[in-house]
Amino acid sequence: MTQALSEDDIYRTSTQYRLWSFSPDALASLRTKTREIAVERLRRSSEQQAARNDEPEVVEYLTEDEELRLTQRYCDQIRSTSDHLKWPVHVKATAVQYLKRFYLSNSCMTYPPKEIYKTVLYLASKTEAIHITVSDYARRISTDPEQVLAPEYKVMQALRFTLDVKQPFRGLKGVLMELLNLAEGLVGAVDGADSMNGDEVKASMLQVRRPPEGNRTQWTPPSSGTLDGKHLNDRIQAAYSAARTLLDAPALLTDVYFLYTPSQILLAAMHVADEPLTSFYLSTKLPISLSTRPQILATIHACADMLAAFDQGAVLTKDERTALEAKLDKCRDPGTKDLIKAFAAMRQDGMEDGKVEEGVAQKRKAAREKNERDGDDLFGPSLPKTNEGSR
Amino acid sequence: MATSPALDVPPEGPPFKRLKTGSNGVSTASSPAPSHMADLAEQVDAQERQKYIKGRKLGSGQYADVYSAHLVSDPTQLVAIKKIKVGAEAKEFGISYDSLREIKFLQELDHPNIIKLYAVFSTKSQNLNLVLEQLPQGDLLKLIQDTSNITYTPADIKSWMLMLMRATHFCHANYVLHRDIKPNNLLIASDGSIKLADFGLARSFADPFQKMTYNTVTIWYRPPELFFQAQYYGGKVDVWSCGCVFAELVARDVMFRAWPENEINMVKMICDKIGTPTEDNWPGVSKMKGYVTPTEVVPLRPKEHWMAQFRAVGETGVDLLMKMLLLDPRKRLSAEEVLKHPFWTAEPRPSRLEDLPRKGGGMEVMGEDLKRRGGEIPNGGGAGGRGDKVARKIDFGAMK
Ligand SMILES: Nc1ncnc2c1ncn2[C@@H]1O[C@H](COP(=O)(O)OP(=O)(O)O)[C@@H](O)[C@H]1O
Hints:
Chain A is mainly α and 391 residues long. Chain A is built from 19 helices and no strands. Chain A: Keywords: Cyclin.
């Protein structure tokens, strides 16, 4: 009667898998295509201008690499802004993926990230159930609310109206729990793996070699050399916390979400954090006979390499960003320059098109204010629908 | 995580299906105006929009107008296009939480008993349009209320409840709470199946440490833990609402129809019909922030008490109902446990879809007044409200 639904099944039906997962080649060619369209658009508009001015300007466009680095810089900006607002990590991760997805179909020359990143962060706050008005948000990050809202539809369109971002954080917590259980001798290996019972698992876990040089964990074995349960516990916690850090910067500032699944990403992060411990963990999970075992491990290792190779120092500095944006100013698409004006005009049309009756809006507002008084403003919005007299 | 979700998924995702240029008619050459070359997202959006021909209006709510539409490529393929209205609150929030939640969750949920969202597109004036499965047969509330034309059997109830529980379980397996399950959010498809709709209040419970609002779920279907202002809760809130729907299907009346509808009356009514929540039946309840109960403690109602009212679904059915409406959310069954209950395999078997009753008098006949509600009764409705004056009309002949 009950269908068994594995996380795997669920992931495969997700929009993240269906629309936002790529091979490295497909990802690269999509970006190339997007930039080509943007450049073609710019050429046409400068040709038109040249026809009027008869003074053809030579414009230098952003290279693909420059676009990527500028986008990455703004992903980092989202991270720090979200941290500044003290929002939970899933809001930040969602916002960063929104920005990265946005620039798969848009060029920085058409919509400079400076004008987009605040919008995606606000949108992510709404889809991740943070409750804040746009004016509060704008005030807290010292910007103009109109600027936040103007590109919102554009962003929705670029996101292809898919808003859910599957993340590795909950899965990582799951691995932490499993490791702690293994260390307690509470569970054995899966059938066909190293076929150990709980006590054997616990015993051999104590023997796992120390993390090699370069692993990110802060843990070092006791000077005596012999581990007890407490040491093992510390080791697991330290690996978890190093992995958690990796899921913040490198995982959000590289393309791993496009290329790998959340579980691959979290295992890769664990691998970079404490390779021997993670290999041991996987050896209890993957039957030796499993035909896909080598492929699974290779995928995790490839993702781990990508996370390990990430260098925070390579993110554009403020000066580099300024220089790049100066260049961008010269090749910026004039057709999309005044988003706010375009937005105001379109919103006017939209309002006339289908307007919510004033009384309803008033009622909703009153109800919302009541909820805010109930101290519910930051968590879980609860806009009662006024068509149901009772919420 | 077991063998780890998706461990064996190779890094190749499926191709970026609809963004593929050229092959499926999208190409840079077909851009609208010479000065404005559509970017890839605009092309996809325009292509989606052009797939449908909009027809007559099916209905209109406070948040949206809903139109019938069909595919250009196949006029027999009907859909419903829900065009979101731009409200005055757009100034404060931009695109509303309700629409964002509906879009976010329906995009991910693909299940035979959940309304299908085929696509979303925007129009020039920046309206969001949701292309939904067309469900022209009204909703479960209309069937429950139409006591003069519609009769249904316990087997029908079982069939509807099974579909509802499958939908709910599927949401929970996807870490989605619906938070507004009630008969008027269960729409009826032309094949007779029911579909859970209106995800405007849904949220994900992926992060168990994030506080959530307790001020959700239409009041009559809201579980006691929310009246006591629990800030951490899960799937059990939806199970309570499903239990209320179950009871309502049998009694053809709202289980907890507090009047006037306020929280105090709701708690009173729950105490009266189920029993007063106490430390004995719900350890820890007295320490909850909003814990207030009438001074006179009602002991938990025994099974015979329930049998008197819900005998129609048999002893197994009553057992299940009681377990869906357990006060303590920890003891209340989860959606999965509900599906494992013996009720579903006990006699009678759930009705087949084609045997389920359809709308009787027709929506037009029933008129606007039945579209209202979710709890509200027009002013002056008093404690009477619907259901009181009408005969209960379950087909007792079909019961054992
Ligand atoms: N999928 C659908 N198929 C057919 N009719 C629908 C559909 N969705 C909504 N409707 C009709 O449009 C009306 C308004 O829908 P909706 O905006 O969802 O309601 P509300 O604003 O009351 O929640 C409904 O009362 C119903 O008559």
